[in-house]
Design goal:
This protein has 4 helices and 13 strands. It has 294 residues and is α/β, with parallel strands linked by helices. The protein folds into 2 domains: 127 residues, Beta Barrel (Elongation Factor Tu (Ef-tu), domain 3); 125 residues, 3-Layer(aba) Sandwich (Rossmann fold), CATH 3.40.50.80. Helix 3 packs parallel to helix 4. The longest helix is centred in the middle third of the chain and has 14 residues. The model has no long low-confidence stretch (mean pLDDT 92).
Length: 294
């Protein structure tokens, strides 16, 4: 993650699962909207509350409350714990904002801005009928629009030397942020870090995402397949790495995030085939193919 200043991180040594206490919802405005690549949209949010935000980790995610089509965002009252999805129930159904979770890609504390990268899977504003609430909002939002921002925490931990980061287009920004964090604070750790990303085409991720890091990482690969075949391709790639006695299959820690079947397949191989303890394998479904993420 490009983070200004580096002191905006709570710690440089993330040895336990990050947490955040006392977070509440604040309002932010869309400052900028940029196509980073043909199928990757970057949205910059700005808020005075972001000047005081301290990040818990490089793959920190946040809750984004977005207005429904044709509606404006109504600021939410302070959140004091409980089920955050029920926090909007005081509003009429058609005025309740949708809630989706995104990773911070860039953070500028002085400017009070965060960037979030959203994989569009080739959809555009004119062809978003089948998109979920998050993508539909991202494609139609304009600078000046308001949203709600709920800070949470990071997911990745840095307890083990040999690591494997696995993802898809939705989690590639998180992987990039983890690599940048390590480069900033623990550059020698990159020599023991492997990266494996599955996507449909090179238009799905940041241009040159791994080009610079290939000379710093133990291994870095992007493999291509349709969305419906990416989990199988990841499973095949990891199985082949085992058969070839690759160092990729001898890691101590696996971080696997993205579409649910992909992340679960990586988790299964790491635990059942490679014998890595479950406490050293983190997996999270960023999204679910064919259905909305709860």
């Amino acid at each position: 993650m490009t983070c200004y200043p580096p002191e905006a991180f709570a710690t440089r040594d993330i040895h336990i699962q990050p947490t955040r206490r006392g977070a509440s919802i604040f309002s932010a405005k869309v400052l900028k909207k940029t196509w980073v690549n043909q199928n990757l949209l970057r949205i910059r949010l700005q808020s005075t509350d972001l000047h005081d935000l301290i990040l818990t980790g490089p793959d920190e995610f946040f809750g984004l409350f977005m207005p429904r089509p044709g509606r404006r965002y109504i600021p939410l009252p302070p959140f004091e714990g409980g089920n955050i999805r029920k926090h909007t129930e005081f509003l009429p159904l058609d005025e309740r904002p949708d809630l989706r979770w995104y990773t911070i890609r860039h953070f500028d504390q002085a400017q009070g801005t965060v960037d979030v990268d959203i994989a569009t899977h080739g959809l555009s504003r004119n062809h978003a009928d089948n998109a979920g609430p998050g993508l539909r909002w991202a494609l139609s939002v304009s600078p000046g629009d308001s949203v709600g921002f709920y800070p949470t925490h990071g997911l990745w931990v840095n307890c083990w030397t040999n690591q494997l980061l696995i993802g898809d287009a939705s989690s590639a920004p998180s992987i990039a942020s983890i690599i940048e964090f390590q480069h900033l604070f623990h550059p020698s750790a990159l020599d023991h870090t492997h990266v494996l990303i599955a996507c449909e085409s090179e238009q799905d991720i940041e241009p040159g995402l791994l080009d610079f890091w290939e000379g710093h990482l133990s291994s870095a690969a992007v493999v291509y397949a349709p969305l419906t075949s990416q989990a199988a391709l990841i499973k095949q790639t990891l199985t082949q790495a085992s058969a070839a006695h690759s160092s990729l299959a001898s890691v101590d820690y696996v971080w696997a995030c993205g579409e649910r079947k992909l992340a679960r397949a990586a988790y299964s191989i790491a635990v059942k085939s490679w014998g890595i303890p479950t406490t050293q394998v983190y997996w999270s479904p960023y999204w679910l193919e064919g259905q909305p993420r709860p």
